[in-house]
Amino acid sequence: MGCGKGGLIKSIVKRDDFKLLKTYLVGIDIYRPYLEVAKKIYHDVVVGDVRFLPFRIKSVDVIIVTELIEHLSKSDAYNLIKDIEVIAKKQLQLITPVGDNSKYHLEDNNPWQAHLSKWLPEEFGIF
Q1: Cα(31)–Cα(113) distance, integer angstroms
Q2: Domains defined for the chain, CATH in brackets
Q3: For 44-59, what is each residue's pLDDT tens digit?
Q4: 44: which strand partners?
Q5: How far apart, in whole angstroms, are the C-alpha atoms of residue 81 and residue 86?
């Protein structure tokens, strides 16, 4: 659960006009094999569980959470969102599938790939 293999960030970094090129990028994931790939894209990677983030309050300028919260229970996802709101200094971007997007198979034998929750837009108005 986390940055995965870094595919999204890799595609963003390829754009020379994007500010991300000048940014120190840190990825976090619980699945070590993904971090072996991601460390070629990020400046630093952290082996960790996003339910227990190792970052201080207002210590990160921008946090991008892409297709992650559906891999958590609703309770854990809400707690993660609250945590990253406190950690982010400037901006938080969160992307998740809308509605039921069941995924029970394991890609790359990654036990964290199963979808444990589904989300609707109105569920984000409670923060």
Answers
A1: 10
A2: 7-126 (3.40.50.150)
A3: 999 999 999 999 999 9
A4: 26
A5: 9
